[in-house]
Amino acid sequence: MKTANKTVSAERLVKDALEKAKFFEDYHIFTSLNEEGALKKAREIDAKIKKGEKVGRLAGVPYAMKDNFLSPEGETTAAAHILEGFTAPVTATAIKKLEAEGAIMIGRTNMDAFAHGSSTENSYFGPTSNAFDKKRVAGGSSGGSAVAVALDIVEFATGTDTGGSIRQPASFNGVYGFKPTFGTISRYGVVAMASSTDCIGFFTKAPEDMDLLMSIASGQDPKDLTTLPDYYNIAEADAESDDSRHASSRPSSRGSSLTRSPLVAKCLESSNSCARIGVIKDFDNESVDPEIRQALKKKCDALEKKGHKVVELSMPNLKYALAAYYIIVPAEIASNLSRYDGIRYGFRSNESTDLTALYSNTRSEGFMPENKRRIMIGNFVLSSGFYDAYFLKAAKARTLIIKEYEKAFSKCDFILTPVSPNLAFKIGEKVNDPVSMYLEDVMSVPLNLAGIPGLTIPVGKAKSGLPIGLQLIGPRRSDKSLLEFAKETECSTAA
Amino acid sequence: MEIKCEDVKHLADLSNFSLPDKEIVALQNDLQDIIKYISQLDELDTKNVEPTYQVFEMENVWREDEILPQEADREALLALTKEEKDHQIKVPKVL
Questions:
Q1: Which among A191, A350, A371, A454 would be 20 to 30 A from A40, CA to CA?
Q2: Are B34 and A358 a contacting pair at CB < 8 A?
Q3: CA–centroid distance for A277 within its chain
Q4: Rounded to two decimals, what is the model's pTM?
Q5: Residue ranges of the alpha helices (H) in A174-222?
Q6: Residue A482 phi/psi, 5° resolution?
Q7: Superfamily for A10-245+258-319+402-493?
Q8: What gap in Å lies between CA B29 and CA B27, rounded to an integer?
């Protein structure tokens, strides 16, 4: 990552990023730019550099922030009308950590409203264009962030991934996108969607940058009681003792039970690093674009040439993950989004003569159609008479999916699959057909249900010029070794 | 199962939405398609399977029962509302 120094100022880096953001204005990447705030911070960092003071690991690095992160810099809209005019009085923990290292937010990025969607078309501000074809979707829900990195506007961008919202847009735009193990990065100060699957992650151009961002952002937060103790940097500290590549100096204070899986550790310690890569045969069928299937095969061949072993897996229950996901997640959405009532913050409908009407008018006018569908489906699966048939059934299916992954990871170290069945589709093609849009997530949602990490790796382009991405999946808390593996194999298998 | 117009109206009530008829009709079709899709879970045998509600590996995270300094104070929070009077949020009549 290009940081500011004595020859290249932070102000220069920020000005360049802002100029590029404006140049690509018609892609609708940003919901707002943070010009004044960003330049002020850049000058502060430059002053420190001039005085020879210590600056952070991300000094002067411009970044883009998905517009569901809270910070007092600009309005947090979540791309929804109902949050109109909301300037957050608090800052998300992840953002605080990045900025403490000197990163500078130059703008908030477009997304599907409340992160409900797979194309960034469900935005109150209109759709974001794909970096490679303006008539096609950016993917979603973190579409703006993916395109901001793909078009080289910023070095990295933040995202959230509840069912694929980082990995799928990363794949559609040819960049890296990482969804960590559930609980790795604090969610304090991020607009909640589904509390049992929401994860914070990043978009970058290289796995090395992803590793750096993860080492900065992960760790326990007293403000988010669902954060894990910092296993990510502990693994790093362990690796340091026999490998001096890592620059962290954090002490290793926790037990070894929190470090990466012994299987993965063993695999990476071997100098001939012989990982076993699982491919899921149940995903190899006509519903997946032939060029994506070919890319997966090519990648497996390249890995085998490098000495890794490819193992075929049968995971028959994964096909039920999408149905389970679209029960569990709407149920959590219905609960989380009941807080938007127009009373304490955001948009309030003017038409109401009594309080009940104020609630319902505000919510009807303020939510996008997809928000309404999900809230209503959530209330349906939770309502009496349907709870057992839908919500309880889905929670049991979730157990079966988790067990299927556990079994798979007893046979392999990582799993490699497509990210989604299709390449970037045309704007307008699926937006009026919710089920066909949901099917975009069929390969990404199982990870969220199981809480395991996944990295989108760009592997080349289709004949049409659209990027193809594959998804490298590891067991819980294998995040560090997963990124290490991506780093090692990328340089050796690049086409 | 079939989703009727009344079902959509009931769900709209549960969700605190007041929707025009046109939107009800569109939602009826969409919800029908979604429910048809998620109903494929019926095929899955879940006999004797325990449900999973969360994938976090820890439970009962405790802290001392003390008030910690807050990032946003009362003034900052009240400033977010549309109408405020005497340090209270003003809303239309309740009854």
A1: A191
A2: no
A3: 23
A4: 0.93
A5: 207-217
A6: -60, -45
A7: Amidase signature (AS) domain (3.90.1300.10)
A8: 5
